[in-house]
Amino acid sequence: MPNELRKGAVTICVVNYKTEELTRLCLRSIRKRTKVPYEVVVVDNDSGDGSLDYLRSLDWINLVERPGEVERGGSWAHGTALDIGLDNCETEFFLALHSDTFVRKSGWLEELVSMAGDDAACVGGGKLDLRHPVLDFLKRATDYRMFIKRKIKKDEKTRFYARTICSLYRTEVLRKENLRFAMGVEDGFTCGKKLYYEIVDRGYPVVTVPERTMAGLVYHLAHATMVLNPEFTVRTRTEKKFQKKIKKILASPEVREVAEDGSLDK
Fold first, then answer.
1. What's the domain count of the chain?
2. Does one domain contain both 90 and 114?
3. 91, 178: one domain
4. Domain check: are 84 and 137 in the same one?
5. H-state helical runs in 37-123
6. Which domain holds residue 73?
7. pTM, whole model, 2 decimals?
8. H helix runs in the chain, sequence order
9. What is the pLDDT of residues 117-140, one digit of tens each?
10. Cα–Cα distance between 136 and 223 in angstroms, integer?
């Protein structure tokens, strides 16, 4: 492990699994709209398809391949992949970014680093599933199952946590406290959830980014990896909904401008 972390720089870690089109879009959007000193680590979870060929063609990323090493999928595969990225990090900050995430705003990473200030151990937000404010209020107000879990059962897993969709961490804190993204997955925690709880419970300051603020920086095509890969079981209604959503987003001028710019691969 490095003794000195590069001050002000960020290692962006993207985990890939058979999502060539989305991973390419994610990486090109990073390339186009990021100015702060950064490097990209892509960890491939044994894709064995065209997405891996594409990643091998890029000389500006640090590609880590895991052929035959991914024992199971889900949070375990994603969490252990992020941990590999963290082990390869030589910068002050480490940013977890989903492969189905598209950077929308130039200067996005500068904004997140600025929010971290001098001491925040994590800067991140919750789900990026934006609804109309009225619909969002109604859903929260009528979600009796979540109410029971939070108020009656006092289930720890329902606490807020910064999602690995797009969250910035202070590398020194994670290493000092021996915190890992795969912590708790054996007990049913989502990747990164137990890590975030430990950061908070050990007294480190965090910055919560409002959902709409984060949505102005990045766009998240939720569930895209599961929808695009038939090996995952997804409800028919969910699949149709997100297939339609994915097609709409990919056809938008904002996305096409980046998707069609092959010069961003160089």
1. 2
2. yes
3. yes
4. no
5. 50-56, 74-87, 108-116
6. 6-126+161-220
7. 0.87
8. 20-33, 50-56, 74-87, 108-116, 133-142, 144-147, 171-176, 193-201, 211-217, 224-228, 236-250, 253-259
9. 999 999 999 987 644 444 444 555
10. 19
